[in-house]
């Protein structure tokens, strides 16, 4: 297929890298700021175009654009053939229907950063405006990912919520913990084996089976000492209190059995 990428941000650059490994032909990148492509190795012959320029004909247009700009895209681009998809978790595919009659979604359920050369495993959720479009989108998606799942707007949005609530929130918690470690002169890297184990074991057990810590043991002495030590870290203290309250409430019946 001939493919055009619209956008030059994180997802656009990672998709350029992934498509370069396939037999599909990347024809052009459409973006408002070609400088954002500097430092990126682009396939030879790839054209860089602005939104107002004549658009290169293609079979698939991948609009990897900010959620806010997607509804405005129709006012900035004229396409005549092919399929257009966006890559957003919580934007309906219908936002594309006035651009081309054949449209869909390829949503990467992964955190993508253009600075990183390493491309992680990327589950893709795909959707299409009709069964033939969906077939084409799914066929393409399978060439850049081993994990492709069909999901309409509603299911994709729920996955997006689950992704935000897990990865984004865990990362914010770690920002606070790393700050605590730095100020208390602790080596945060010492936590890495524990953090890796916490994630890795989810391949074998559910999180509810392996919850540990003072909250589930109802260990009020340790909890009070921790909260006292957190008086100069109000954000971490707030989350510690919330988590402790929620964990003890949910696992009240189990607290007597837990020893670790
Ligand atoms: N990154 C991820 O981990 C990830 C994962 C899954 C899904 N997504 C979704 O994929 C989409 C793209 O995400 P991203 O991380 O690639 O975002 P990003 O790095 O912020 O890139 C957004 C792109 O949209 C362009 N853009 C924004 N406003 C514009 C405007 N008014 N006119 C023209 N271009 C405009 C930006 O151009 P400039 O560079 O010139 O500002 C940039 O090329 C979003 O819907 C996001 O939710 C992202």
Explain the overall architecture.
By secondary structure, the chain is α/β, with parallel strands linked by helices. The protein folds into two domains: 2-151, Rossmann fold, CATH 3.40.50; 157-259, N-(1-d-carboxylethyl)-l-norvaline Dehydrogenase, domain 2 (Orthogonal Bundle). It is 37% helix and 14% strand. It has seven helices and eight strands. It has helices spanning 10-20, 131-144, 153-183, 192-200, 214-217, 220-229, 234-250, and strands at 2-6, 25-30, 47-49, 60-63, 83-86, 103-108, 124-128, 148-150. Strands 3-2-1-4-5-6-7-8 form an eight-stranded mixed β-sheet, with helices on one face. Helix 2 (131-144) links the parallel strand 7 (124-128) and strand 8. The longest helix has 31 residues, at 153-183. Residues 7-12, 31-33, 36, 64-67, 69, 87-89, 107-108, 111-112 line the site of NADP nicotinamide-adenine-dinucleotide phosphate.
Shape: elongated
For this structure, what is the CATH homologous superfamily of the largest domain? NAD(P)-binding Rossmann-like Domain
Number of helices: 7
Which radius of gyration do the C-alpha atoms yield? Answer: 23 Å
Please provide the ordered H/E string of secondary-structure elements. EHEEEEEEHEHHHHH
pLDDT < 50 runs, ≥5 residues = none
């Amino acid at each position: 297929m001939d493919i055009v990428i619209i956008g030059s941000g994180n997802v656009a650059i990672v998709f350029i890298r992934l498509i370069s490994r396939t037999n599909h032909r990347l024809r052009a990148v459409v973006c408002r700021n070609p400088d954002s492509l500097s430092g990126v190795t682009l396939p030879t012959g790839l054209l860089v175009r602005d939104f107002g320029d004549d658009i290169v004909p293609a079979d698939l247009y991948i609009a990897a654009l900010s959620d806010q700009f997607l509804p405005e895209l129709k006012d900035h681009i004229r396409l005549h053939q092919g399929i257009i998809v966006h890559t957003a978790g919580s934007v309906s595919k219908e936002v594309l229907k006035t651009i081309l009659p054949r449209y869909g979604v390829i949503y990467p359920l992964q955190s993508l950063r253009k600075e990183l050369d390493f491309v992680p495993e990327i589950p893709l959720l795909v959707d299409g405006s009709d069964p033939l479009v969906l077939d084409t989108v799914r066929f393409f998606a399978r060439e850049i990912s081993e994990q492709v799942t069909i999901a309409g707007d509603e299911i994709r949005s729920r996955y997006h919520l689950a992704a935000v609530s897990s990865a984004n929130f865990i990362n914010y918690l770690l920002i606070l913990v790393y700050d605590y470690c730095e100020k208390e002169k602790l080596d945060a890297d010492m936590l890495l084996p524990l953090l890796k184990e916490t994630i890795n074991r989810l391949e074998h057990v559910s999180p509810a089976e392996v919850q540990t810590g003072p909250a589930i043991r109802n260990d009020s002495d340790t909890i009070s000492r921790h909260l006292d030590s957190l008086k100069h870290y109000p954000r971490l203290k707030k989350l510690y209190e919330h988590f402790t309250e929620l964990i003890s409430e949910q696992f009240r019946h189990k607290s007597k059995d837990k020893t670790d």
